[in-house]
Amino acid sequence: MEDKITIIEGPAPTFEATSDLWVQGLAESSLQSEIVTTRLRTFDGQDLVERCRRAWRNQQNIQLEYRTLEGFPDEVPIVAARSLTTEEGDLLILWVRFPETDVELSIDYAEEDDYDEDDDFFFGDEIDTDDDEPF
After folding, report:
1. What's this model's pTM, rounded to 2 decimal places?
2. Which of 29, 35, 54, 122 has the fewest Cβ atoms nearer than 10 Å?
3. The CATH number of 3-109 is which of 1.10.10, 2.40.450, 1.10.3470, 2.20.130?
4. For 96, how many CA atoms within 13 A lie in the half-sphere containing its CB?
């Protein structure tokens, strides 16, 4: 039986990419995946971290169960957990594994002012084939 940490109320969690080097060790797997982090307010952060540790010690998986922005239930495996005590209460930080197919990529384009037509290469551009130079 897999254990779960369920978000009962509140908005859908926000998942953020992480650049911590130790996370790369968690990402090593035969499956393509992305490790991301989420921060959750809780009443018993240390108890939830201990629940994760017990599952891992018994070589079991533990899932984060939540509702997506669209309101559908979803689950992702938790791969690391940490609890912090703040003035506002306990903060639970979870690192979870998203399959590569579930990761959305955001690409920002340069401003129009930075655009220079001369920098572009198109496959239709003419190439000088009479030149003996390889480059």
Report:
1. 0.68
2. 122
3. 2.40.450
4. 26
Is the model more confident about 118 or about 87?
Answer: 87
The one-letter amino acid code at 128 reads D
pLDDT category at 135 given cuts 50, 70, 90 is: very low
Q: Residues 2-13: what's their mean pLDDT?
A: 87
**What does the domain layout of the chain look like in residue ranges?**
3-109
Cα–Cα distance measured from residue 82 to residue 66, given in angstroms and rounded to the nearest whole number: 18
CA 101/CA 108 separation, integer angstroms: 20
β-pair type (73-86, 89-99): antiparallel
Residue 78: pLDDT over 90 = yes
Beta-carbon contacts of 49 under 8 Å, excluding residues fewer than 6 positions away, are 81, 82, 83, 92
Q: Are 8 and 70 in contact (CB under 8 A)?
A: no
10 conformational bin, left if phi > 0, alpha if psi -120 to 50, beta if neither: left
Place of tokens 């190439």: 127
Rounded-to-integer distance, Cα 83 and Cα 92, Å? 5
DSSP three-state, residue 114: helix
